[in-house]
Amino acid sequence: VDRINRLANSLLWLAREATPAQLEEIHLGSAIEAVWVNLAQTASTPQALRLDIPDECTLNADPSLLELVLRNLLENAQRHGEAGEILCRLQGSVLYVVDHGPGFAESELPQVFDRFFVGAGGASGLGLALVRHVCSATGWQVSARNAPSGGGEIRLDFGESLVIPTAARLTTPSQTLA
Asked: Which of 73, 97, 71, 95 lies closest to 85, judged by CA?
């Protein structure tokens, strides 16, 4: 029932304009942690999430749209990460979400954000299509590639909506969540 509700909600989001309703200052690391806690409760295989994001880093965004994007990216990494650690790393204004699964087939990379795309691994859905839709509406840029260390890597550039204090740019704490 939950999966059907999520699918119906995803289709509704794709059918309408995903313009931000309200902008708030959101702590990026805390937002990722909150989404991860909810996903970890329903996961069939325990995985760890490592955050390399300055504590002071904030984002001016619509909370519901940010939550939707983060949930889809983390759920995708969780599903394809083969029980390995998932990394969320911030460099400049770019958030990298990296899993340690098989990665993307090179020939499929241009299509992974298409609605109902079915890859060689048989996975299909709306998650990444919804991410691209929201990113287009908010001015964020999203792309996919294979990580140099293996696995899939999603790159999400928040652009001007990300605020990183100068002191936080010098040191980035790393923490791991189970």
From this structure: 97
Residue pair 108/118 in contact by the 8 Å Cβ criterion: no
Closest to 72 in 3D by CA, of 149, 13, 137, 139? 13
Q: Which helix (H) or strand (E) holds 162?
A: strand 162-163
Structure tokens at 79: 């599903």
For residue range 79-94, what is the model confidence (pLDDT) as tens digits?
888 777 999 999 999 9
Q: What is the DSSP track for 59-101?
A: EEE-HHHHHHHHHHHHHHHHHHSTT--EEEEEETTEEEEE--S
Instruction: Give me the helices (H) in the chain, please.
Output: 2-15, 28-42, 63-80, 127-138, 166-170
Model pLDDT for residues 13-40, shown as the tens digit of each residue: 555 556 666 889 999 999 999 999 988 8
Q: d(Cα 19, Cα 2) in Å, to the nearest integer?
A: 25
Q: Each residue of 132-161: b (16+ CB within 10 Å) or e?
A: bbbbebbebebebebbeeebbbbebbbeeb
- Amino acid (one-letter) located at 56: E
